[in-house]
Amino acid sequence: MNQINTKERLVGLIGPRGSGKTTLLLQYLKSDYDIMDSLYMSADDIIMSDTTIYKVAEEFYSLNGKVLIIDEVHRYRDWAKELKNIYDSFPKLKIRFSGSSMLNILHEQYDLSRRAFIVKMNELSFREYLEFKYKIKLDSYPLSNILNDSVKISSSMISKYSYIYSEFKEYLKIGCYPYFMEIPENYSVKLFNSMQKIIFEDIPSLNKIEFSNLSFFQKLIHKVAAAKVPYKVNLAQMSSELGISQPTLYIYLGILDKSGIFSAIRKYSDKVSKKPDKLYFRNTNILNTFANEFDFEIDQGTFRETFFVNCFFRHRGFQDREFYLRDRR
Q: Would you indicate the residue range of the signal peptide (predicted)?
């Protein structure tokens, strides 16, 4: 909340579907602004077919509006151009917007990178999950402490919170997204539907992918889930099996990575390489959901590796690399 409750006029929440962007924006409005000073709008609302977000902002500003929330901004065709114009035209208006993790603000031609303060949202960590569910705050530890004092740290936690181990097993299956706060039994269905929306709505709208080609994304997901172990990438073999060129396959894998469905890990090497070596699902919840959907068993080693990779994907310096520890993988 502190990251969006800032003096910055233009703040964007960027993250995967289901990560709680809308909830956070609404909480921000509720806690900081009078109802008459704020306006929430969803960029994909049917009413937007008869107007523009600029016109809405213009009228709201004329009524002395103070903060404008634009949810799902990537669903609006000229979102970057109009955000820039709103920012430049209405100097006393604060704008908060949310968008897909696939949005590339830095590369937009309207130069939002100079204007927008971007907050990247991840799925819930185990600590955040416990804070949501039980209102408790666990200490965080440097990696060196975890490696050297894991038994001591875990014993201390268990002595304070006897349920923590069972909650961790629950978290691995249904704890990475705020859906668990609703009806836990429906969690996997909601997460699967969210993944489908990424494939059939977000990917084509943000990447100019023809609808007829979306089946390749489903096939890639099925292939990774069916492998049961972290998927070893062989671009030549995969492209041949799918019937697409290697450059197209490489682009599709990158899209699934940016969308928050996959984590692409490169082989540890001193040489610079962009080719992914292994593919994981972004977190254990997604792995569990697709395994259930396709009726595959989950290898427990893969479950543990997926959790480990997800922990490090949160930190910029660790992304995209195979992991070595004390000169060993």
A: none
CA 9 to each of CA 90, 117, 119, 177, 320: distance values in angstroms, whole numbers, following the listed order: 10, 8, 13, 28, 32
CB 69 within 8 A of CB 23: no
d(CA 206, CA 77): 9
In this prediction the pTM is 0.85
Domains of the chain and CATH, by start: 10-120 (3.40.50.300), 126-179 (no CATH), 189-318 (1.10.10)
* Share above pLDDT 70 across residues of the chain, in percent, rounded to a whole number: 90
pLDDT, averaged across the chain: 87
- Alpha-carbon torsion (103, 104, 109, 115), positive or negative: positive
Burial bucket for residue 23 (CB in 10 Å: 0-12, 13-18, 19+): exposed
Model pLDDT, residue 317: 46
Rounded Cα–Cα distance for residues 227 and 298 (Å): 9
